[in-house]
Write a structure and sequence with these properties.
Helix content: 40-55%
Number of strands: 23
Number of helices: 26
Length: 656
C-alpha cells in the first residue's frame, strides 16, 4: 500500500482511542504471546528489547516505533530496563464513504499494517505519548477529548516521518495469525466468525485463504490441535475425562468424547487403554460451519466443578457404558433377584390362602368401586414421547438437580436423587429436606442398579443428560424426560408438576414466584440501571455470564442493566486478561469453582484481581466485588435457588 493511500484512509476514518498503557520491564522480563485486542502503536522510550510479531523477530532500541494490527501476537524480551507506551485504538471508515475508499480499505487496511522504525525526530512523539498517558488516567471527559486530539497529532507525526524515511509497510498474514492464535487459544470457545473478528478480516475470506494454504478449514485445524493435546494427556497423565475435556476446550465431557471418537475412531477410554492407539480419522466436519466447536446451540444454565453442567446435547461415551457386558450382567442379576423375590412371596401367599381360605376369599374379592378422579389414567407428553401414568406417584427418582428442587417445592420428597454438583451430597440450601434420600449417582452417570433397587413408580430425567439410558430406565419404571436443561427452569417445572400429578400446587408456586419478581422489579425503579456483572473463576478458565444463564434470566426479568459484553442472548464467554475491561460493572458478582482439597482456582482469582486492568474496573475501585454462592447463582438451577437468588438481589440493592 502506498503511503499516500494510507494517509487518505486515515483522513476518512473515525478513530476511537481504547487504552493507553505506560509500562516498565526489568532486564530479563518477558511478555509472551500477547494478542493485540485492537490496532496499536508501541513506542519504546528507554532501553532495548527483542520484539516478536507473529514470530518475526526484531530489535527495538530507545525511541523505536512499532505499529501492530488487531490480532497480531506480540512477544517482548527486555535486554535492558525497558520503558514503553502502548496506544490502542479502533478505526473504521466514516459513513457514508466513497466507494473508492471502501475498496481501498478492503484491499489494504492501513490499520492492520505492521511496520517499525526509529524516527529521526523522536522527542515530538515522546511529548505527545507522555501527555496522552497522563491525561488518560484522569476521568474528565474534556481530558479524553484532548487525548483524541493528541492521538491525531501523534499519527500525523508518525506518517510524516515515515514519508521521510521510506519505511516499508508490511501487510499482516491472516493465515499465519490464525494458526498462531489457534495453537495459543485452543482451550477457548472459537468460531470462524470470532476468529475472523480477532484477526480483523472477513470470515469467508479467511476460510478461503486458510483452506488454500493448509488444505483444511480453521475449525478442522482447531479440532486436530485439541484432539492431539487430548491424546497426549490421556497417555501421559492421570487427569480425569472431565479435566482433559476442559483442558482442551470442551466444557462438555460428553461432547468431547463424541468428537474424539469421530476423529480417532475409538472412545477416549479405549484409546487410553489400547497399547496401539487407532490411527486415522473418520471426521470431516462442514468447513462452512459457523458454530463454536464447544457448543451446539446457546447453552443454558451452567456448571459447577470443571464442567458446564447445563448445556445442550451432551453426548459421548460414559464410563458406565464402556463395559456393557458387565453392566448387563449386573442388571440381569438385579432382575433375577426381584423375580425370585416375587415367586417366594407368591408361594407364601398361596400357602396362607390354603390355611385360611374363608378369610382370604373375602379379602381377595372386594366389592368393585369406582376409581377416584385422582387415580384416573392420564397421558404425559415429554421429550421421549408419551407416557401413561395413573394417580399420584409415591416413589419418585429424580435425575437432575433442578428437578430435585421442583419436587421439593411441590411437596414431594424423592426416594432417590442424583447428588448435587457441590455439597456432600446435597447443596446446603436443600440438605435439610433431603435426609434419608438415596444418592443414585450424578446427572452424567446415574447408577442403574441403585435405581432399580429402590423400586420407583416414576423416574424423571432429562434427554440431554440421560437419553442413552432411557430405555433401561423405562423398563424399571415409567420414565418421563424433559427435553433440555434451560436457563428458564420454569418450562421443565411445568412438566414435572404434571408428571407427579401436582398441577394445582405447581401453578401456585410459579404464580408466587412471578408475583415476587414483579414486586421486586417495581421496587428497583432507577436502581435497575445499575450494571451487574457476573463472573466465574476456576483453575482453568475465567468466564463472564450472559443473558441465557440461570442468573442472567432472572436479572433480565428484573430489567437489571448488564455490561455490553454480557447483555447478549448467549451463555458464557471465556475471558483472556486483555478482555478484563469487558467484565466491568457497578457491581461484579463472582463465584469460584474449586475442586475439593485444592486451591488452584483461588490462585487464579488472586492473579486476576492483582492485574492492573482488573484493579482499574469500577467495581474494583469502588469496593463492589462480591463473592457469591455458585450453587445459588449458577449450578442448582431450580425454583428454590431462584427464590434464594431473588432474596440476595433484594439485599444487595437494599430494597424494603
Amino acid at each position: 500500500m502506498k503511503l499516500i493511500d494510507q494517509i487518505m484512509v486515515w483522513n476518512h476514518a473515525a478513530i476511537r482511542v481504547m487504552d493507553i498503557r505506560h509500562s516498565i520491564m526489568e532486564e530479563g522480563d518477558e511478555l509472551r504471546s500477547y494478542r493485540m485486542p485492537t490496532s496499536a502503536f508501541l513506542f519504546v522510550v528507554r532501553g532495548r528489547a527483542q520484539l516478536g510479531l507473529d514470530g518475526c523477530e526484531s530489535t527495538a532500541d530507545r525511541f523505536h516505533v512499532l505499529h501492530m494490527g488487531k490480532g497480531l501476537c506480540l512477544d517482548i524480551r527486555a535486554e535492558q530496563l525497558l520503558e514503553y507506551f502502548i496506544i490502542m485504538y479502533k478505526a473504521m471508515l466514516s459513513l457514508p464513504s466513497r466507494q473508492e475508499w471502501v475498496q481501498l480499505m478492503e484491499k489494504h487496511n492501513p490499520f492492520q499494517m505492521h511496520f517499525g522504525f526509529a524516527p529521526y525526530y523522536p522527542v515530538v512523539l515522546y511529548d505527545k505519548a507522555a501527555r496522552m498517558s497522563r491525561l488518560w488516567q484522569q476521568s474528565d471527559p474534556l481530558n479524553k477529548l484532548e487525548v483524541k486530539a493528541l492521538f491525531y497529532q501523534f499519527v500525523h507525526e508518525v506518517l510524516r516521518q515515515l514519508d521521510q524515511q521510506d519505511v516499508p509497510l508490511v501487510k499482516a498474514d491472516p493465515v499465519l495469525q490464525a494458526i498462531r492464535y489457534l495453537h495459543d487459544h485452543y482451550q477457548e470457545s472459537i468460531t470462524l466468525e470470532s476468529l475472523a473478528e480477532k484477526l480483523h478480516c472477513n470470515s469467508r475470506q479467511l476460510l478461503r485463504m486458510f483452506k488454500s494454504r493448509m488444505n483444511t478449514s480453521p475449525i478442522d485445524y482447531l479440532i486436530q490441535i485439541r484432539i492431539g493435546k487430548a491424546k497426549e494427556r490421556l497417555l501421559n497423565t492421570d487427569l480425569t475425562m472431565r479435566e482433559i475435556a476442559e483442558s482442551v476446550g470442551y466444557s462438555d465431557s460428553y461432547y468431547f468424547s463424541r468428537m474424539f471418537k469421530k476423529v480417532e475412531g475409538v472412545s477416549p477410554t479405549v484409546f487410553k487403554e489400547s497399547p496401539h492407539p487407532t490411527e486415522g480419522s473418520r471426521y470431516n466436519p462442514s468447513p462452512m460451519s459457523r458454530y463454536s466447536i464447544v457448543t451446539a446451540k446457546p447453552q443454558r444454565y451452567i456448571d459447577e466443578g470443571s464442567e458446564n453442567h447445563y448445556q445442550y446435547k451432551r453426548e459421548g461415551d460414559l464410563s458406565m457404558y464402556r463395559k456393557s457386558t458387565t453392566s448387563m450382567l449386573a442388571m440381569l442379576f438385579v432382575c433375577f433377584t426381584l423375580l425370585l423375590s416375587a415367586c417366594v412371596n407368591g408361594a407364601a401367599t398361596s400357602s396362607s390362602a390354603n390355611s385360611n381360605s374363608s378369610t382370604n376369599i373375602a379379602t381377595a374379592t372386594p366389592a368393585p368401586t369406582k376409581a377416584p378422579e385422582a387415580e384416573t389414567q392420564r397421558v404425559v407428553k415429554h421429550a421421549m414421547g408419551e407416557t401413561k401414568l395413573q394417580g399420584t406417584p409415591k416413589r419418585v427418582v429424580i435425575l437432575t438437580n433442578e428437578g430435585t428442587e421442583a419436587l421439593l417445592a411441590l411437596g414431594i420428597k424423592p426416594i432417590g436423587a442424583v447428588k448435587s454438583w457441590s455439597g456432600d451430597p446435597w447443596y446446603n440450601h436443600i440438605k435439610g429436606e433431603m435426609q434419608d434420600v438415596t444418592v443414585v449417582g450424578d446427572e452424567l452417570q446415574p447408577n442403574m442398579e441403585v435405581i432399580a433397587s429402590l423400586k420407583p413408580d416414576l423416574i424423571i430425567g432429562n434427554k440431554v443428560r440421560q437419553e442413552k439410558v432411557y430405555e433401561q430406565l423405562n423398563k424399571i419404571a415409567p420414565t418421563v424426560f424433559s427435553a433440555d436443561l434451560g436457563a428458564d427452569w420454569q418450562e421443565n417445572f411445568k412438566l414435572y408438576m404434571e408428571a407427579v400429578n401436582k398441577k394445582e400446587e405447581g401453578l401456585k408456586a410459579l404464580a408466587a414466584f412471578d408475583k415476587r419478581v414483579s414486586e421486586v422489579k417495581a421496587k428497583l425503579g432507577s436502581k435497575a440501571a445499575t450494571q451487574v456483572s457476573v463472573v466465574r473463576f476456576s483453575a482453568t478458565q475465567v468466564r463472564i455470564y450472559q443473558k441465557q444463564t440461570f442468573s442472567g434470566v432472572l436479572l433480565n426479568q428484573l430489567g437489571v442493566a448488564r455490561p455490553a459484553a454480557q447483555n447478549k442472548d448467549g451463555n458464557i464467554e471465556v475471558m483472556s486478561k486483555e478482555k478484563i475491561p469487558e467484565m466491568d460493572g457497578d457491581f461484579l458478582f463472582y463465584f469460584v469453582t474449586e475442586t475439593p482439597g485444592k486451591t488452584d482456582a483461588d490462585k487464579v482469582v488472586k492473579e486476576w484481581m492483582n492485574d492492573p486492568l482488573f484493579q482499574n474496573l469500577k467495581a474494583s475501585k469502588n469496593g463492589k466485588l462480591i463473592q457469591v454462592d455458585e450453587a445459588i447463582w449458577n449450578s442448582a438451577g431450580g425454583i428454590e435457588a431462584a427464590n434464594l437468588l431473588l432474596d440476595e438481589l433484594v439485599a444487595f440493592f437494599q430494597l424494603k
